[in-house]
Amino acid sequence: MIIIETERLILRAFRESDLADFYEYASAEGVGEMAGWSRHKTVEESRSVLQRFIAGNEVFAIALKSTGKVIGSIGIHDRTRYAWFSGGEYASLNTKEIGYALSKDYWGQGIMTEACRAVIGYAFGGLGLDALFIAHFVENARSQRVIEKCGFNYIRNADFFAEQLQKTFNERIYILYKR
Fold first, then answer.
1. Fold of 4-177
2. What is the DSSP letter of 34?
3. Residue of 155, 156, 135 whose CA lies nearest to 146
4. Where are the domains of the chain?
5. d(Cα 18, Cα 50) in Å, to the nearest integer?
6. Residue 74's closest CA among 15, 20, 14?
7. Distance between CA atoms of 124 and 174, rounded to whole angstroms?
8. How much is the average pLDDT of 161-168?
9. What is the CB neighbour count within 10 angstroms for residue 104?
10. What is the distance, to the nearest Å, from the Cα of residue 105 to the centroid of all Cα atoms in its chain?
11. pTM
12. What SS3 class is residue 134?
């Protein structure tokens, strides 16, 4: 069980006891929609997703060190959802993709940048990855700032169909190579 500590945060595996905190931010309008998923309408919906997080072992809870409250999530995912990826210049690299969500109450405080930098260190040091991908919807300027502060380099734009939202988004895709 991996635990990553930063100045203000503890990144750790989700627990069943995180359900109330998880539902609080996942049910807020605008949080999930920025990541391509519908906000949670019931606690049971959050419980189902939380159980997948626990079983999948690829998503960290973002908890405040000061209180232990879970305020977001950040995952390191095995994804090759881009058609251009499988046969291109990136095919020989050991890569994963970072994805995240954060409670609206904590936007604009540098928390996601802090969490993302910690996960980058773990991905390159602990997992031995060659590179990380990350993406944001074009209209999500907050995520763009996090991505740029963390040193990712823009590759290209692509369309992403968010099945839960039944909507296609134009997204910007970035890469960060292990130094």
1. Aminopeptidase (3.40.630)
2. G
3. 135
4. 4-177
5. 8
6. 14
7. 16
8. 86
9. 13
10. 17
11. 0.93
12. strand
d(Cα 81, Cα 83) in Å, to the nearest integer? 6
**In sequence order, what are the beta bridge partners of 156?**
173
Give 95-137 pLDDT, tens digit per residue: 999 999 999 999 999 999 999 999 999 999 999 999 999 999 9
Tell me the C-alpha to C-alpha distance, in Å, between residue 76 and each of 2, 26, 98, 116, 133: 13, 19, 5, 10, 10
Quickly state the pLDDT bin for 57 (edges 50, 70, 90): confident
Structure-token pair, residue 88 = 């291109």
Q: Rounded CA gap, 87 and 74, in Å?
A: 27
Q: Does residue 171 sit in helix, strand or coil?
A: strand
Helix locations, the chain, DSSP H:
19-26, 43-56, 111-125, 141-149
DSSP state at residue 66: T
